[in-house]
Specification:
Order of helices and strands of chain B: EEEEEEEEEEE
Number of helices of chain A: 0
Shape of chain B: globular
Structural class of chain B: mainly beta
Helix content of chain A: under 10%
Helix content of chain B: under 10%
Strand content of chain B: over 45%
Largest sheet of chain B: 7 strands, mixed
Oligomer: heterodimer
């Protein structure tokens, strides 16, 4: 079945450093979503990417969808302590209507 | 008030007990989902429902059952709880276009 892997599993950065998490699917995706879960909280939607090669930006966050629509990345420029949390990608297989979540990357930002 | 609510928020139970987790939503969405979260494994889909008469198994449905009592209500049952069902459980909803999912606050379940 469809599998979605994320790397790294954990990342500790100094405040002000950049951070990137990568998401890889075993199958071609129709679209991909990104969520952020703060410690003790629930996942909150960040963005959805649909087109091959799509790039979207939200302030310091840059999201990319691969040309083959099998991978995606989230890059945070100049991290802040408010960026702390776990970032999940969720990919929707072309043949189904449900999303499969990645394993998540937990980000810790050291002040 | 929260759009997606879950009850209870925390539950400790014993092996073999029957447990029901409840989810209610006020977003008017047709689609509802149950996920469990375990450290290092992310969110795994247990069951999902695209409308009141539609129930589908997810990745890890064994040991679980669900009921969609109304558009706004989707409950998850553990007929005979076992320790490896100890996890954080999330309910989520989305609209028919399958866009963003809205998650409830979660239920932390411990099976002793």
């Amino acid at each position: 079945g469809q599998q979605v892997m994320q790397i790294p599993q954990y990342q500790h950065v100094q405040e002000g450093e950049d951070f990137t998490t990568y998401c890889n699917s075993s199958t071609t995706l129709s679209n991909i979503q990104w969520y952020k879960q703060r410690p003790g909280g629930h996942p909150v939607f960040l963005i959805q990417l649909v087109k091959s090669g799509e790039v979207k930006k939200q302030k310091r966050l840059t999201f990319q969808f691969g040309e083959a629509k099998k991978n995606s990345s989230l890059h945070i420029t100049a991290t802040q302590t408010t960026d702390v949390g776990t970032y999940f990608c969720a990919g929707r297989d072309s043949g189904t209507y449900k999303y499969i979540f990645g394993t998540g990357t937990r980000l810790k930002v050291l002040a | 008030d929260a759009d997606v609510t879950q009850t209870p928020r925390n539950r400790i139970t014993k092996t073999g007990k029957r447990i029901m987790l409840e989810c209610s939503q006020t977003k008017g969405h047709d689609r509802m989902y149950w996920y469990r979260q375990d450290p290092g494994l992310g969110l795994r889909l247990i069951y999902y429902s695209f409308d009141v008469k539609d129930i589908n198994k997810g990745e890890i449905s064994d040991g679980y059952s669900v009921s969609r009592q109304a558009q706004a209500k989707f409950s998850l049952s553990l007929e005979s709880a076992i320790p490896n069902q100890t996890a954080l459980y999330f309910c989520a909803t989305s609209d028919v276009r399958g866009g963003e999912s809205f998650f409830g606050p979660g239920t932390r379940l411990t099976v002793l």
